Automatic annotation (TrEMBL):
<keyword id="KW-0627">Porphyrin biosynthesis</keyword>
<keyword id="KW-0808">Transferase</keyword>
<dbReference type="InterPro" id="IPR050161">
    <property type="entry name" value="Siro_Cobalamin_biosynth"/>
</dbReference>
<dbReference type="GO" id="GO:0019354">
    <property type="term" value="P:siroheme biosynthetic process"/>
</dbReference>
<feature type="domain" description="Tetrapyrrole methylase">
    <location>
        <begin position="97"/>
        <end position="300"/>
    </location>
</feature>
<dbReference type="InterPro" id="IPR035996">
    <property type="entry name" value="4pyrrol_Methylase_sf"/>
</dbReference>
<keyword id="KW-0489">Methyltransferase</keyword>
<dbReference type="GO" id="GO:0004851">
    <property type="term" value="F:uroporphyrin-III C-methyltransferase activity"/>
</dbReference>
<keyword id="KW-0949">S-adenosyl-L-methionine</keyword>
<dbReference type="InterPro" id="IPR003043">
    <property type="entry name" value="Uropor_MeTrfase_CS"/>
</dbReference>
<dbReference type="Pfam" id="PF00590">
    <property type="entry name" value="TP_methylase"/>
</dbReference>
<dbReference type="InterPro" id="IPR006366">
    <property type="entry name" value="CobA/CysG_C"/>
</dbReference>
<comment type="similarity">
    <text>Belongs to the precorrin methyltransferase family.</text>
</comment>
<dbReference type="InterPro" id="IPR000878">
    <property type="entry name" value="4pyrrol_Mease"/>
</dbReference>
<dbReference type="InterPro" id="IPR014777">
    <property type="entry name" value="4pyrrole_Mease_sub1"/>
</dbReference>
<dbReference type="GO" id="GO:0032259">
    <property type="term" value="P:methylation"/>
</dbReference>
<protein>
    <recommendedName>
        <fullName>uroporphyrinogen-III C-methyltransferase</fullName>
        <ecNumber>2.1.1.107</ecNumber>
    </recommendedName>
</protein>
Length: 349
């Protein structure tokens, strides 16, 4: 059981206790097993009679009651916060739609603000690679809608997703769009934000840990290193125009690291792009798959062996391809000892 799962379990108990005919003793019974919860559970029981008449509907009133008791303290169980069910944190908490970054996949890498938005949501639209346990953070009555996209197979078009966000917000629901990684990094968050803006709907962006950061950390490395790498480029193996290349090649100079998202299917084209690079023999390639997940793998290879390494290790998606050119390679460009070569799939972790 994780720390974030505990509030959800209690929330479900509170929901049962405050339902017609429910017994507050159920909530109080959970208290002794979790430090610091007993007194707050008792406080919730004492507020049962006051909460329902002011809330108008059990889910809305209970949401505010729950957040006030377990996130903001029992002294805050009063006034509009009890009646409206809004989150205690007002830094963006009252927006109709939250575009929330879930992080790279591991459930414990979502931000605290992201957790709070999930706890307050009436409806959550979530992606394919989101950890299912994150959905346990939602209230029992929250609606969960899968809108995931697999390579070449989109259950929902982007236009349909954007329209659904608008419609749900117009119905007065608190909406969370739960996206893998960070909503602003190759996640099409801008398209959803544009649709909301055009409809006059207020929204917020809750940043998440992007895949490149997670991948570097998974190998014990860093995206930038003083004296070695001082330029970072985040790019994609796919562009809006089929067959077009992202224009990252000119940036790959000594002192630069390029992180390629969604590059597995384009590995052959990446190799071809690098084939005529002036520093090709000094480019360091690192492939990180399933970063921060139980099955994570990290491999090193030469710039001419990327496709073979991916294929030979059965790597298909959820992968970052790093291309690095340390600054010192410029000083030793003529030394054959620095040649990386094309051997595929040398494990680095």
């Amino acid at each position: 059981m994780t720390l974030f799962q505990i509030p959800n379990m209690l929330a479900r108990a509170v929901t049962r206790a405050f339902a017609p005919g429910g017994e507050c003793a159920r909530t109080e019974a959970l208290g002794p097993s979790i430090p610091g919860v007993g007194a707050r559970a008792g406080a919730l029981a004492s507020f049962r009679g006051a909460a329902q008449p002011r809330s108008g509907s059990a889910p809305q009133g209970l949401g505010g009651l729950w957040r006030s008791a377990f996130l903001g303290g029992t002294n805050d169980l009063q006034g509009d916060r009890l009646a409206t069910g809004r989150a205690a944190d007002h830094r963006g908490g009252n927006h109709a739609v939250a575009l929330v970054g879930a992080g790279p996949g591991a459930k414990d890498l979502i931000t605290l603000r992201g957790v709070r938005r999930l706890e307050a949501a009436d409806i959550v639209f979530f992606d394919r690679l989101v950890d299912p346990e994150l959905l346990d953070l939602t209230r029992p009555e929250a609606e969960l809608v899968y809108v995931g996209k697999a390579p070449g197979r989109h259950s929902w078009s982007q236009a349909r997703i954007s329209e659904a966000l608008v419609v749900a917000a117009q119905q007065g629901k608190r909406v969370v769009r739960l996206k893998c990684g960070d909503p602003g990094v190759f996640a099409r968050g801008a398209e959803e934000a544009d649709a909301l803006r055009m409809a006059g709907i207020d929204y917020e962006i809750v940043p998440g840990v992007t895949a490149a950061s997670a991948a570097a950390a998974a190998t014990g490395g860093f995206l930038t290193e003083r004296g070695t790498i001082d330029t970072l480029v985040l790019t994609t193996g796919r562009t809006e125009v089929a067959g077009a290349d992202a224009d990252w090649l000119p940036a790959l100079r000594p002192g630069c690291k390029v992180a390629i998202y969604m590059g597995v299917a384009e590995a052959g084209r990446i190799e071809a792009t690098l084939s005529d690079h002036a520093w090709r023999d000094h480019i360091q390639v690192e492939i990180v798959a399933d970063a921060q997940m139980p099955g994570q793998r990290a491999l090193r290879c030469g710039p001419t062996a990327i496709a073979d390494t991916l294929r030979g290790n059965g790597i298909k998606n959820r992968t970052i391809i790093f291309l690095s050119l340390p600054k010192d390679c410029a000083l030793a460009s003529g030394e054959s000892s620095l040649r990386i070569g094309g051997e595929a799939g040398q494990a680095c972790v």
